[in-house]
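Board notes (copied after class):
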Amino acid sequence: MLVEDDLDLVAMCDAYLTRVGFEVVRTNDAASARGGFGRVDLVVLDLGLPDGDGLDLLRTLRQGGHDQLPVIVVTGRGEEADRVVGLELGADDYLVKPFFLRELVARIRAVLRRAGADPAAPPVIHLGGLVIDTGAHVIRAAGEEIALTPREYMLLEFLAASPGRVYSREQLLAQVWESKAEWQAQATVDEHVYRIRRKLADAGVEVPKITTVRGFGYRLDP
């Protein structure tokens, strides 16, 4: 369950988590979240909700018969006191915004393992002529592996997790390079896109393709 009122963030997390094998329940406030705890395996909880403090919801959850339900607290609050309070109330982990989607997935898998649950296995994504094995970090076309550098693979896998969604160069630098535009040239993204396109063309892959959306960024069209 994602309990978060930032709808853009929810949409991005939902698309990515679904692609890597999770079933996602979305709620935007504390009231709608309370009735759904019994049908999920883990909660990703924002502290700043429109109808109350997420810490109050966490307290209610722990005192209301869901004391074993794993909870990852996600918030813009970076102060140590907030992290301590969240953990003392029973949060299993803590992420501060902005965060990386791959890190969120890694935290979810780790918390589920500690809780004795069986996290979703890394999926194999089929898009057009591509097969992306996210567990082995291998991309194949017509049964043959396409040799990508680690960063090229990460970029293509990230776009493949949300086909049709447009990402700006700044977002791609943040999520794939874990960097910022002021630290790394945005042309880095363009160069990697160029190289991926060339390698896909050499492998005879016409679909999916990375499309340039002028003035916005890139998307993967399935």
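Comment from the instructor: The longest strand covers residues 71-75. The CA atoms of residues 194 and 210 lie 9 Å apart.
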